[in-house]
Each structure stands twice: as structure tokens, then as C-alpha cells.
Design brief:
323 residues, two-stranded antiparallel sheet, 69% helix, globular, mainly alpha
Length: 323
């Protein structure tokens, strides 16, 4: 295969994999905000919990000289599916006390509380070196089926794995959101008081929504960790781990899982392609600033969409709200 063509294909596969992982995060946020109206700014916390849990469950304890430099609380060496399952369970379990503490707060306070909890999780992983090697993080994470596939084709295999998870999450959410449970979530988003008057336990439904979205984000974190094969606390800063996902969902359209996926692919395309394209036209003396232009591009596109299409590129699918 021609070197240039091979490089383009490799880039496109990597792009599709990362965009699909972020589409899973976007659908998790859609459960919170798009369907239930929960203003969660703590996505990065569940992202980190999923990534670190899966990394610790699937990796083995360092041995020999490496043990002097890499510290981790445990390494179970379990298969990849067990790591994904553990990531989903841990993220969901942590969401329960988070919900008990925050879901009775108003939207603004909920946003502040969740971003504070998220940052606390990131700082905890950063400062407690015994847990997962502190700021250096973990490297050499196991990748599923790696030993069975040629390195030249492995990214195709991992893309297929991610797409399978993406389809499963999408189909499960579509089924759930069209059920009576999903219609209750929409009713709570529109008017909590009327939902309570109709006899619904609003707090319980909001807690269920928070846990489900967190489980999906935990799965996304696991898939990210094994794709990159390395994680460190700096990955889970609010910009990369929370606000870019909010941009994806807002751009694609809240309350619509197709919009969540579309927004993820568009924003990740801007994020991953803009630096390369800008470097081709920006004078050499200014190329160190080129990566920051993508923030402006994403913000500009978001503003245009919010002005021209306030409901996103794909509006919400309206359904009859019958309990």
C-alpha cells in the first residue's frame, strides 16, 4: 500500500474510533440533559472512573525494575469485557451518592456541584500515587485481540469493537426512551411539579437517569483507555472531558440520539483536523498558536448553530407524553 494512502487510512480509522467513543459519551449526556434536564458538568469524573477502573482490572501488577517506578493499588489481569463491565458498574455505583447529594439542588447548583465532584476525582487520581501512579498515569494497557491481529490491521479491529458498543448503547437507549420510563423522564424535564402531581417519584427517576448516563460514560472511559493504551489525570480536565462533549450534544441536537452521534463526529472532525489544516496556511512563526484556533472554530460553529438552529442540527423527536 502506498505510504501516503496508508497514512490517510490510518488517520481516518483513528478519527472514526475516537469520534465513536465520544458519541457514546454524548449519548450518556443526552440521557442526563436531553431527556431528563439534569445539568451535569461532571462528565469527566465518570470518564475517569471508567478509564481507571478498566485499566486496573485488566492490567497486571508491574514486576521487576518497573515496580519501582509504577505504583498501582491492584492489577487483576482480567479480560477486556470484564474491564468494561467493571467500569460501567463502578461509574454507576459512584453516581448513586453523587445523585443523593446533588439531585435536590436547582440546575445552577447542580452544575457547580457536579463539576466540583468531577475535579475532586481527577485531583484524587493525580495526588494519590499509590492508586494509579499519580500524574504519570498508567501505560501499556492491554488491548483486546491484540495478539491475534497484525499491528497493521489492529486499529480496524478496535474500531469494529467500538462501533459494536456504540450500536448496542444506541439501540438500548432508543428502546428505553420510547418506553413508559423514558416518557416519564421527558415529563420531568418539561415540568417536575406536574409529574409529581401525577404520582411519579421525580427524585427516583432522576437518580435512575443519572446512574444510567454514568454507566454509559463509564463504558466510554473504558473504551478510550484501551484504545490509547495509556491514561493520566490530565486527560480528564474539564475542557477535554466535559465541555467538548457538551458542545457535541448541543451541536447535534439534545433529546435525539442520532443528533448526539452526529454532533460527536462533527466536533471531533474539527478538533482533530483543524490543527493540521491550519498549519498548512499559517505562517511558520505563528504555528505554535494554531492548535488554539480550533477552540475558536468550535465556539464559532456552536454560536452559529445556536442562532440558526437552536435545537441543534437534528431537532428532538417529539412524542406523545402518555404515562
Amino acid at each position: 500500500m502506498d505510504t501516503a494512502l496508508g497514512g490517510i487510512i490510518s488517520f481516518l480509522i483513528t478519527f472514526a474510533t475516537m469520534a465513536s467513543i465520544y458519541a457514546i459519551f454524548s449519548m450518556g449526556l443526552n440521557v442526563h440533559w436531553g431527556y431528563t434536564g439534569l445539568l451535569n458538568f461532571g462528565i469527566a469524573g465518570f470518564f475517569a472512573l471508567g478509564a481507571y477502573t478498566s485499566a486496573l482490572v485488566t492490567s497486571r501488577m508491574p514486576t521487576g525494575a518497573l515496580a519501582n517506578y509504577v505504583k498501582q493499588v491492584f492489577g487483576l489481569g482480567m479480560p477486556f469485557p470484564i474491564g468494561v463491565l467493571a467500569a460501567a458498574i463502578v461509574a454507576g455505583l459512584i453516581a448513586i451518592p453523587v445523585g443523593l447529594l446533588t439531585l435536590r439542588l436547582s440546575e445552577g447548583y447542580l452544575a457547580i456541584a457536579t463539576i466540583g465532584i468531577s475535579e475532586s476525582i481527577r485531583i484524587f487520581f493525580n495526588n494519590e500515587s499509590w492508586l494509579a501512579n499519580g500524574p504519570q498515569g498508567l501505560i501499556g494497557l492491554p488491548q483486546p485481540l491484540r495478539s491475534l491481529v497484525s499491528p497493521d490491521y489492529y486499529n480496524f479491529v478496535y474500531l469494529a469493537i467500538v462501533v459494536i458498543f456504540l450500536v448496542i448503547v444506541y439501540l438500548a437507549l432508543e428502546r428505553g426512551i420510547r418506553s413508559p420510563w423514558g416518557r416519564v423522564l421527558r415529563a420531568i424535564r418539561e415540568d417536575e411539579t406536574m409529574s409529581e402531581a401525577d404520582g411519579k417519584n421525580v427524585f427516583l427517576f432522576k437518580l435512575q437517569s443519572l446512574v444510567l448516563g454514568a454507566v454509559i460514560m463509564g463504558i466510554g472511559g473504558s473504551l478510550y483507555a484501551h484504545f490509547s493504551a495509556a491514561i493520566q489525570p490530565s486527560v480528564f480536565e474539564p475542557l477535554f472531558g466535559t465541555f467538548i462533549i457538551w458542545t457535541m450534544l448541543t451541536l447535534g441536537g439534545t433529546g435525539n440520539n442520532k443528533g448526539a452521534i452526529l454532533g460527536a463526529f462533527i466536533v471531533w472532525a474539527i478538533w482533530s483536523w483543524s490543527t493540521y489544516l491550519i498549519n498548512q496556511v499559517v505562517p511558520p512563526g505563528f504555528q505554535t498558536r494554531a492548535p488554539y484556533i480550533r477552540y475558536i472554530l468550535i465556539g464559532l460553529i456552536l454560536v452559529i448553530v445556536m442562532v440558526r438552529r437552536p435545537k441543534g442540527l437534528i431537532g428532538e423527536e417529539r412524542q406523545v407524553s402518555r404515562f
